[in-house]
């Protein structure tokens, strides 16, 4: 991470080990570089700064991508990524290997983002709704620019991303994890702390809501184009 936090905590990431005020900087530079994730986790739990740096470089791009998809704002996503890794720095000692490290980290990241959204008083969809848990459309898509949820006609990427941003945070989280990040429902259930059925239900509702939002985007765009055409015709006359 690139900057020193306002709360006085050291920056995490490329600048952390080189800060002159860090008493462990010389020690961390002399530490042997971890060669596997498991080794890096073990060393980081023992307080090795270089090992934590290794984990940061291994996972930061995907954590940032997850934050960006959830908030659709690069500065906010950067800040949330830093907050997620600060949480990781504080809590890595509690990791017991009961799930994949990436799943554990992404669960932490999702919680950080949802806490931010709640502070902004945005509606959060409940994960306890279980209507139509098995009524799921097509399988996972890892690219948000993939074919559009069975809408008639083409929907461009900008409209899709704008519509995803309008989803309630709970729906948006499951949609991003499944259709963008490519997680399976059992993994999402682990990340979100819900059942597989609830994950499927949330995805179904997210896709249904997204179809409605996309259709409205298309209608709005068509109205704007008609208005522009009429204005141009009147101007030409």
Helix-strand layout with pairing:
Elements: H1 25-30, H2 37-45, H3 49-71, H4 74-91, H5 101-119, H6 157-166, H7 169-180, H8 185-192, H9 196-236
Helix pairs in contact: 2-3, 3-4, 3-5, 4-5, 5-8, 6-9, 7-9, 8-9
Question: What do these coordinates show?
Answer:
With 237 residues, the chain is mainly alpha-helical. It has 2 domains: 16-119, RNA polymerase sigma factor, region 2, helix turn helix motif (Rna Polymerase Sigma Factor, Chain: A); 157-236, Arc Repressor Mutant, subunit A. The chain has 9 helices and no strands. It has helices at 25-30, 37-45, 49-71, 74-91, 101-119, 157-166, 169-180, 185-192, 196-236. Helix 2 crosses helix 3 (49-71), helix 7 packs across helix 9 and helix 8 (185-192) crosses helix 9. The longest helix has 41 residues, at 196-236. The chain is elongated and about 75 Å long.
Number of domains: 2
- Could you describe the largest sheet, including whether it forms a barrel? none
Strand content: under 5%
Q: Report the mean per-residue pLDDT as an integer.
A: 73
- In CATH, the architecture of the largest domain is Orthogonal Bundle
Helical content (DSSP H or I, runs of 4+) = 55-70%
Distance between the termini: 58 Å
Shape: elongated
Q: Radius of gyration over alpha carbons? A: 22 Å
Number of E-type strands: 0
* CATH third-level topology of the largest domain: Rna Polymerase Sigma Factor, Chain: A
Q: Could you spell the SSE succession in H and E letters? A: HHHHHHHHH
Low-pLDDT residue spans: 1-11, 13-30, 122-155
Structural class: mainly alpha
Task: Report the CATH C-level class of the largest domain.
Answer: Mainly Alpha
CATH superfamily membership of the largest domain: RNA polymerase sigma factor, region 2, helix turn helix motif
Total DSSP helices? 9
